[in-house]
Amino acid sequence: MGPAILESQLPPHTRLPKALQLLCEFSIETGTDFLTGNIALTPNGPENLEAWVRMAPSLGTSLFVFARDVAHALFALWMYETRDLEQCPVVRLDSEGVENRVVASNPSDFAWCLADGRSIDDDGRPMPELQAWLAPRLARPAETIRPTWATDNALDVWIRAGITAAVGRPPIRGRS
Question: Distance between CA atoms of 18 and 53, rounded to whole angstroms?
Answer without folding.
Answer: 27
